[in-house]
Amino acid sequence: MNAIEREVTSWEGVTSRGGRFGTVEFRLGRHVLGLLPLAGLVDDSVAIARLREAYERAMAAVDFEFRLPDEPTRSSSLAFGDVTP
């Protein structure tokens, strides 16, 4: 878990905090990237990959929300509609 938390919180703007029911919650602003249990077996590489996908979708949403009309968008292959507020 510590390796996952170190990796994910090293990404720009990502924070972690204790979640409900013994979990750690990762957020980018108001976007929840995911929750991980504090206890149990978790495959670090799979968890990091899934959180990275959520991070990229959230970054695309943040870019969309705060972009001025004449600013270019960041290129992303992920769909905007997949982001959960």
Top keywords for this entry?
single chain, 85 residues, alpha+beta, three-stranded antiparallel beta sheet, 3 strands, 36% helix, disordered C terminus
What does this structure look like?
This protein has 85 residues and is of the alpha+beta class. The protein contains two helices and three strands. It has helices at residues 2-9, 44-66; strands at 14-19, 23-28, 31-37. It has one domain. β1 and β2 (23-28) form a beta hairpin.
| Helix/strand structural class | alpha+beta
Rg over alpha carbons: 14 Å
Helix/strand order, N-terminal first: HEEEH
Nearest-integer average pLDDT: 78
The number of helical segments is 2
What is the total domain count? 1
The unreliable regions are 74-85
Q: How many E-type strands?
A: 3
Main β-sheet description: 3 strands, antiparallel
- Give the overall shape, derived from the CA principal axes: globular
The largest sheet has its strands arranged as 1-2-3
The proportion of residues in beta strands is 15-25%
Helix content: 25-40%
End-to-end distance: 24 Å
What would you say about this model in short?
The chain has 85 residues and is α+β, with helices and mostly antiparallel strands. It contains two helices and three strands.
